[in-house]
Amino acid sequence: MGNQQSGINYQFSETAVPRATAQSPKQFLHLQYLCALMSFSKTVAFHTLGCKLNYAETSTLSRMLEKEGFAKKSFEEAADVYVINTCSVTDNADKECRQLVRRIQRRSPESLVVVTGCYAQLKPKEIAEIDGVDLVLGAAEKFNIADHLKELAKGDSTKISSCDIEDVEEFNSSYSVNDRTRTFLKVQDGCDYSCSFCTIPMARGKSRSDSIANVVRNANELGTNGVKEIVLTGVNLGDFGLNGMTDEKTGKRKEHFFDLVQQLDEVAGIERFRISSIEPNLLTNDIIDFVAGSKKFMPHFHIPLQSGNNRILGQMRRRYRRELYMERVEKIKSVMPHCCIGVDVIVGFPGESDADFKDTFDFLHAMDVSYLHVFTYSERDDTAALNIKPVVPMQVRHSRNKSLRNLSYMKMQYFTSLHSGTTRPVLFESVSKNNMMEGYTDNYIRITTPYRDDMVNTIVPWKI
Q: What DSSP character marks residue 158?
């Protein structure tokens, strides 16, 4: 069709991009402006630092902005808006955030830069001082990002939208959806514990949870979209239900994590569930026995330990001692000998002597666990651990980290060898690396094989 305006003859193709002939230089410039205006599309790119919970939330933020008309770009591409979802568990996460902002400034200085996540909640003014940051969103405003972007312009002074963490009470459901066959589903947020090394309660607020009904609804929706495996995530997952509905007569909460696990086991569309991480004092025998008999919950637990020395556990303000941890591992192995058990450990905590570290090393070496996630202690502002002496030298921390990573490698090699020659179900993912594909057995042994399109998002019996 055609249109006459300002002496320009417009003709529109099926894609609504105008073609025209200009009769003067002024008309030509006007035409260029209109073409640019009609072809303009807001773009956004995301980068996530930290835990699975952050990945779930970033995916949700991405979907929210896509509904607002934004086109998603790779973080390495030019975009109108860059969103960095931060972690603040270690100094490295803080440094990486600053490095990312500088990289954006070099590549795309006119783009808007938004920083959110734990680092943004803990140190909003520090982030606002980074050259190139336009908006800092705290925990309460993260999911209002679309509204904030409507009022944001490059060149304005950096806007901080934060709040007292005590005021953060709302739970925002989130899940990751990308080209992987495993999806991280957030069911709990915040933490009421007061571990002396941790800033998470200050960054994410009080413990709060989704309802079981909504979690089941999300799981059903994900199953309908072809997802095969859901990983349940949260800050303190076993504390699920703390702010749930309470019984009018007893005043006690009606919903618990064990209730959630039981109901999810009935979801028809999902073939696999995993529990991402659960505190040993909240991992009950009921949960362990249920997983042992379930066809959908995988024989895989990740249980934070942090230290194998009781004195250090006390200094960390952990809510258990190593004897309880050992009991949990022994219970799991008694009903699921094939179960994979992962462990979080912190090395170099203030006051950790060589003897204390050896205590941890020997404890882990003797236990029937499968792999370790090893963290080097990092001083965090406003934590009680800063007052504990003596400080462990950094080179000693790194040496201890290396020792436990070597132990982890040997543990996983041994665990895998125990299953050599056996056949276990493997869910293969769509990611192709050098024409190879990866998948995980039910008990979390990683399998790598030449890429085959017909095996993507498929559970295959596999001889290890």
A: P
Give the integer Cα–Cα distance in Å for 110 and 458. 44
Q: How far apart are CA 143 and CA 163, in angstroms?
A: 14
Q: Is pTM beyond 0.90 here?
A: no
Alpha-carbon distance 198 to 193, whole Å?
9
In 3D, which of 263, 234, 260 has the Cα closest to residue 174?
234
- pLDDT of amino acid 351: 98
Distance in angstroms (rounded) separating the CA atoms of residues 85 and 98 = 12
Domain residue ranges of the chain, discontinuous segments joined by +: 2-39, 43-163, 171-298, 423-463
Nearest to 375, CA basis, from 349, 393, 352, 353? 349
CB 350 within 8 A of CB 323: no
- Angular region, 104: left φ>0, alpha ψ -120 to 50, beta rest: alpha
What pLDDT was estimated at residue 180? 59
Element (H, E) at 411: helix 394-418
Distance CA 65, CA 81 (A): 11
pLDDT at position 168:
81
Contact 238, 282 (CB under 8 A): yes
pLDDT at 333: 98
Domain covering 171-298 in this structure, CATH number:
3.30.750.210
| Pairing status of strand 459-463 against strand 229-233 | unpaired
- Pairwise CA distance, residues 215 & 234, whole Å: 12
CATH superfamily of 43-163: Methylthiotransferase, N-terminal domain (3.40.50.12160)
Spell out, as residue ranges, where the chain has pLDDT lower than 70.
1-41, 89-91, 93, 178-180, 242-253, 432
* pLDDT, position 167: 73
The Cα-based distances of 100 to 74, 85, 113, 160 in angstroms read: 14, 11, 10, 19
The CA-based diameter of the chain, rounded to the nearest angstrom, is 87
pLDDT recorded at residue 51: 81
- Chain segment 106-163, per-residue pLDDT in tens: 989 999 999 999 888 988 898 898 889 999 998 888 999 999 998 888 878 888 887 7
Interatomic CA distance for residues 265 and 329, integer angstroms: 23
